Hints:
By secondary structure, this protein is mostly helical.
Amino acid sequence: MTAQEPDCRADLGPAVALFRSLGDPTRLTLLHELARGDRRVVDLTRAVGLAQSTVSAHLACLKDCGLVNSRPVGRQSVFSLAQPELLELLAAGEQLLAATGAQVALCPIYGVDRAPVDLPAPAVGGPA
């Protein structure tokens, strides 16, 4: 699939899973921290102000998605971004937000301070 000619028949499941993993505020904050360089769990815990167990659970999710790596250093684990393309994706997201202004934040379904909503799947053969 290219930007010039999108393939509407493509399996969007993996893309949906990727963006869901990025859609959680804590995970997105952790990725922004890791974009600044490798971090220990204790450093990330301080940065997000959450319990170590919560941060570890989010890091495990990101690791399972292939977005972060960890390596042991003594008795601690140090986390880093696994894919350099993730930096480009985050930068593109920031550019898109700058271009749309407050429109995304004001979205009645996904906007800021809105509860997550599961939209019904479109009917097969019907309009999307």
